[in-house]
Specification:
Layout: H1 21-30, E1 45-46, H2 58-66, H3 75-87, E2 92-96, H4 99-110, E3 116-119, H5 124-131, E4 136-139, H6 160-170, E5 177-180, H7 193-206, E6 210-213, H8 217-227, H9 236-245, E7 249-253, E8 264-268, H10 271-284, H11 295-307, H12 311-330, E9 343-347, H13 348-351, H14 361-373, E10 375-376, E11 378-380, H15 382-385, E12 400-404, H16 412-427, E13 435-439, E14 450-453
Parallel strand pairs: 1-10, 3-4, 5-6, 6-7
Antiparallel strand pairs: 2-8, 7-8, 9-12, 11-12, 13-14
Helix pairs in contact: 1-14, 2-11, 3-11, 4-5, 6-7, 8-9, 12-16, 14-16
The structure holds pyridoxal-5'-phosphate.
């Protein structure tokens, strides 16, 4: 049958509160026009992030009951460690309460002033954790990855020539190369196995360790299976193990392809590096067999890792994101193509060409989608990336609005509604105005900045 259905049925429901346009206007103004500051009860369809917002399965809830809260050496820890190593057989697995905790610990050990860490595109927390140590974060995605409308099967790929040039020039200052799968800040676009092998070869030649930011490893592996020549017959779990075999370590947020609401880990082969990281872990996260998580969380993640590589799940997951992207595309709304794994990215700069980047077209669109239909999205553009460490401002490479799809949470009619709201806003987009920032912190400003509309 042509329809790809949700491979589950609903077991427990959460009511949604339908708000009026007046309520939404008041709520977003009170929030300083920052969607992160809106009470989520005032949101109808919450596409702010796919991080930790998914629905757990009945087996994961059973895992929550099975959770054992022993401080050290809990059976939940051994189940978690075995589930991670079944896909990522790194010698050391270090649990953390979420992805950025893994980043913070690793960067504290390998970062520092004068260091430089390349990636296809650093995620915001990765970049911030690198810059917080005084090191420099460099993005080296292929040029195709920066052209939103261009169709290319692996727009997350690393630009190997530029990586090679950087390694030749700055090898002594580069403690590790990162690759983010899928490339979240670059549109949720996948990285091919061939490209990962190319990065590995360069890391071997220059003797630099390769780390994965593997938050969406299963979605990336599904795209490899679907799009990369010769990969179509393979099990996703087998592709994931091959990806792992190309790297020396990883950071992970289990709030994404861990199918859990909290959690993460850091993993690596290197014994000395692992010892340094565990010492920091004990300082800030907890003992190395729980790392800031409850035993029950470790069990939920262990089961999530079994479910996330199932083909029926991934076929549905990738198709349901594609359904939203295709609907917006058909409505004439400029989106990043092809559709990514976990989200659809609207090209706000192209949709609102009358709003200059430093007046935040992405923020203007995100606010309009909320006011029009109670949809919460996330600006990924000049608000998120425009502030430099010295406090100056410059336009980000792209001004996107991300509609991230929580895993196993919304139905097709919810998504049809989202498409209708976006089309309604697009029809009157010439009337939308820009914003200015009235208050902002020094780093990761998009979370807490306050805004003001530039025109009434
Ligand atoms: C979410 C994310 C992180 C950070 O993980 P948290 O669990 O949110 O701290 C890092 N990298 C990428 C690519 C992500 O998507």
């Amino acid at each position: 049958m042509p329809t790809i259905i949700e491979p589950f049925r609903i077991h427990s429901v959460e009511p949604l509160r339908i708000t009026t346009a007046e309520e939404r206007h008041a709520a977003i103004a009170a929030a300083g026009y920052n969607l992160f500051a809106v009470h989520s009860d005032d949101v109808l369809i919450d596409l702010l992030t796919d991080s930790g917002t998914g629905a757990m399965s009945s087996e994961q809830w059973a895992g929550i009951q099975r959770g054992n809260e022993a401080y050290a050496g809990s059976p939940s820890w051994y189940r978690f460690e075995a589930a991670v190593k079944a896909l990522f057989p790194f010698r050391h697995v270090i649990p953390t309460h979420q992805g950025r905790a893994a980043e913070k610990i690793l960067m504290a050990v390998i970062g520092g002033p004068g260091r430089i860490i390349p990636n296809n595109t650093h995620f915001d927390t990765t970049r911030a954790n690198i810059e917080a140590t005084g090191a420099e974060a460099v993005d080296l995605v292929i040029p195709e990855g920066l052209d939103p409308a261009l169709e290319h099967p692996f727009k997350g790929n690393m630009d190997l020539a530029r990586l090679d040039a950087l390694l030749r020039e700055r090898r002594a200052d580069i403690p590790a190369v990162f690759v983010t799968i899928t490339n979240n800040s670059g549109g949720g676009q996948p990285v091919s196995l061939e490209n990962l092998r190319g990065v590995r070869a360069l890391c071997d030649r220059h003797q630099v360790p390769l780390f994965l930011d593997a938050c969406r490893f299963a979605e990336n592996a599904w795209f490899i299976r679907e799009r990369e020549p010769g990969q179509g017959g393979r099990e996703v779990a087998e592709i994931v193990r091959e990806i792992a075999s190309l790297a020396d370590g990883m950071t992970m947020s289990a709030k994404k392809d861990g199918l859990a609401n909290i959690g993460g880990w850091l993993a690596m082969h290197d014994d000395a590096l692992a010892a340094s990281c565990r010492n920091l872990l004990i300082l800030t996260e907890g003992f190395p067999t729980y790392g800031g998580l409850a035993g029950r969380d470790l069990d939920a993640i262990a089961q999530g890792l079994v479910e996330v590589v199932q083909h029926d799940y991934l076929r549905y997951r990738i198709r349901s994101t594609g359904y939203l992207g295709d609907g917006l595309h058909a409505a004439g709304i400029p989106t990043m193509r092809p559709v990514g794994g976990h989200a659809v990215y609207i090209d706000a700069r192209r949709m609102l060409p009358h709003i200059p980047p430093l007046q935040y077209p992405g923020q203007a669109l995100a606010v309009a989608l909320y006011e029009a239909g109670g949809i919460r999205s996330c600006e990924i553009g000049t608000v998120m990336f425009g502030r430099r460490p010295d406090g100056s401002e410059q336009p980000a490479a792209l001004d996107l609005v991300r509609l991230a799809i929580p895993r196993r949470t919304y139905t097709q009619s919810h998504i049809d509604y989202v498409i209708e709201v976006c089309a309604e806003v697009a029809a009157r987009s010439a009337g939308l105005g820009g914003y200015r920032i009235t208050e902002e912190p020094a780093a990761l400003r998009h979370f807490t900045a306050r805004f003001e509309p530039l025109q009434g």
